[in-house]
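ok so heres the complex, two chains, lmk if somethin looks off
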Amino acid sequence: MPMAADDIVALIKQGIPDAEVRIEDLRGDGDHYAALVISKEFAGKSKVQQHQLVYKALKGKMGGELHALALETRPPQ
Amino acid sequence: MTDPVFERIKQDVSDNAVVLYMKGTPVFPQCGFSAAVVQVLSHLGVKFKGINVLEDPSLREGIKAFSDWPTIPQLYVKGQFVGGCDIVREMFETGELKQLLDQNGIEQKAA
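and the predicted structre for the whole thing:
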């Protein structure tokens, strides 16, 4: 089940308001994305916790509607 | 009240130093992300136990709840959840994974 890139970005920003999100549709099929998410919220958190914040923002869509989202997260430099 | 699936996961990750919950088996992964983690572990020469979640729907859902992580594969070292494919790959590239394995006394065959 494909999901539009804009919808993914909107959900992430809804959950993490200060997030800067860059997203790429890897195969152009609306099903395999790579995203870079930068947010102050990530400071001092482990990678697992950082990714969990993004997954939480995606409200259960990850692993369901959203099949593949390669994630890279970091606090602003 | 204890969840039998959680109990089983706890048992598996404490009985085995390195456990990979994956789709398919280490010899025959059935998902690109699982295959990528198997490749990293094999490259480092780490002995690990692969658990195929496709064989058990309750485990497939249970492991996601256990770690509060929505996707598979999931790597555990000494009972601790390390991450999924992206994190494992990133940690491998930065050398953090090797460091973590060293710290936990996990034997690695020199490549």
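quick notes: Chain B has a mean pLDDT of 95. thats all i got rn
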